[in-house]
Amino acid sequence: MKLANPPDFEHDMALYKAEHTTLSNRLVHIFTTPVILGAGIVFAAYVPPPFASLCRNGRFCNAASSSRQCARFVDMFDWPMLFVGALASQHIRLAPIAGCCVTLLELAMALSATALVKREGRKADAKGVPCTPGRAARVAGSLSLFSWWAQLHVGHRILEPDGYRVPFPPEFYSLTSAVIDAPLFVWFIW
Length: 190
Description:
Shape: globular
Distance between the termini: 40 Å
Number of strands: 0
Structural class: mainly alpha
Order of helices and strands: HHHHHHHH
Number of helices: 8
Largest sheet: none
Helix content: over 70%
């Protein structure tokens, strides 16, 4: 089985620079890219931690360990932290100094998102209702939709002199590369 080639960071950065020529479009991306990333992290915070069922069933933590220690371990490895860890490994590999700085911002987003969702869960528990995606998800979803619209329509369609040079922006050709590279691109155009 042959693994896919790793993304060509310099090529991606050159492509981003070619597609973001005006200062106004770059400013749109500087403000909206972190919002999109943060919204995704908020959505991930609603998904139960991957090790929670092992802890509850007693398979992961032995009888001598307290449920509090187990809960602390599970909280360390929730989906936002795993997502940020995966992004961090790629960002630091591609651009060590900028990657560390971007990772710190992403870590702050993950901790904030987890705290918001936990607070919603505690409020739901106090009312005796099941915790479903609530205010944080609605706000994150609304901001994410607005940010995508701002980037694709306002940034690329209106603010760029040539509009789209291709039928779709480059993000649609490699969404994975866009998710990985966009925070670094925003850092470099800052």
